[in-house]
Design brief:
With 347 residues, the chain is mainly α. The chain is 76% helix and 2% strand. The chain has one domain: Orthogonal Bundle (ABC transporter involved in vitamin B12 uptake, BtuC). A two-stranded antiparallel sheet has the order 1-4. Helix 5 packs antiparallel against helix 13. The longest helix has 27 residues. One of its GO terms (cellular component) is plasma membrane. It is a multi-pass membrane protein. GO terms for molecular function: transmembrane transporter activity.
Length: 347
């Protein structure tokens, strides 16, 4: 008999990710927004709400890539400097007389190849991704500074469709962020690859023994994450028409914080694009609220640290509650679902 069918409704609700991780974040977003709007009535205005999403669109795209990696038990600290390098390459290509489309394709291919390299080294040589990508952080930063000669590279008001155009009154970076979230959520929830990602992060050895291609799954996660980082870098460059080699140095840590806020765990096996989206929005709302309340800027890092600590505590409480009320083993559930999909396809 399926354990879920025997479980009381209350237990199933308490075990759900929506209650354990997302609901507290939504409550925090609402509380902060209402308080700040009470102090300044413009906070919940449509212009400010769109500005909040615009400011974190680049971070959000990178964070979705990190969500896949963290769910698979991996990590990439080099995405911030890779995004900066992508912006520099894109702007330099335009200055050399290249077309916008070819510049975008070139950058995405280069970033995908870097992700492929990380994935092969991690999956094939068992190199710890933390150390490997930490080295990549310095490597990409140095390359970006070398190409740009340590100065921002102007893009001559190009790439308007990528960073400054509006669709239905909303700027394109917001649309790109939302599209990435929706596509990633569908892939993680309804495809075999998504199930393999969770299974690999939950227990790589057991997943491999059941026939799941864990190495290929990790490589694909690195490729997707690096490609999204490159795209985010292009969007950031297009917004300001400049490829800045020092742009977004804190994006990697902020992306990890957003994933953890949304219920991900660095141990792997858990993470949700929708949860990450809510985590990104919370970080944006907090930062905007500090600005609206005229809080001195040096408090931003302190508040960011407190929010991250809050996320870790909430995650720990959710895990304790889940163990208390019981839950199906994640890996077993994913394997059963994979087998059912395989049997259906064979029929």
């Amino acid at each position: 008999m399926n354990v879920d069918n025997r479980s009381p409704l209350k237990q199933r609700i308490l075990r759900s990710d929506g209650v354990r991780f997302m609901a507290p974040l939504i409550v925090a977003i609402i509380a902060i927004s209402l308080y700040t709007n009470g102090e300044n009535g413009n906070f919940l205005g449509s212009d400010n709400l769109k500005n909040i999403l615009l400011q974190v669109s680049v971070l959000g795209i990178i964070a979705i890539g990190q969500t896949l990696l963290i769910a698979a038990g991996q990590l990439d600290l080099s995405v911030a400097t890779l995004a900066a390098l992508a912006g520099v390459i894109g702007a330099t290509r335009i200055n050399d007389g290249g077309s916008e489309l070819w510049a975008v394709l070139l950058v995405l291919v280069i970033c995908a190849l870097f992700g492929l390299l990380w994935g092969i080294l991690v999956a094939g040589l068992k190199i710890p991704p933390f150390i490997l990508t930490l080295g990549g952080t310095s490597l990409f930063a140095s390359i970006a500074l070398r190409i740009s000669k340590s100065s921002p590279v102007p893009a001559r008001e190009r790439f308007e469709w990528l960073g400054r155009a509006k669709v239905f009154g909303v700027q394109t970076p917001i649309w790109y962020f939302l599209i990435v979230v929706v596509v990633a959520a569908f892939v993680m929830r309804y495809t075999r690859f998504g199930r393999h990602v969770y299974a690999t992060g939950s227990n790589e050895e057991a997943s491999y023994l059941t026939g799941i291609p864990t190495a290929r799954t990790k490589v694909l996660c690195f490729v997707i994450s690096s490609t999204l980082a490159g795209f985010a870098g292009l969007v950031a460059m297009a917004r300001i028409s400049t490829g800045d080699p020092r742009n977004g140095s804190q994006l990697a840590l902020q992306a990890i914080a957003a994933v953890v806020l949304g219920g991900g765990t660095l141990a792997g096996g858990r993470g949700s694009p929708i949860g990450t989206f809510i985590g990104v929005v919370l970080l944006a709302v907090v930062q905007s609220a500090l600005t609206f309340n005229n809080v001195q800027t040096f408090w931003n890092d302190a508040v960011f640290g407190l929010v991250l600590i809050f996320a870790v505590v909430v995650t720990a409480i959710g895990d304790l509650r889940r163990r208390r009320f019981g839950a199906r083993p994640i890996l077993a559930s994913l394997i059963r679902r994979s087998e059912s999909v395989r049997v259906s396809s064979e029929k």
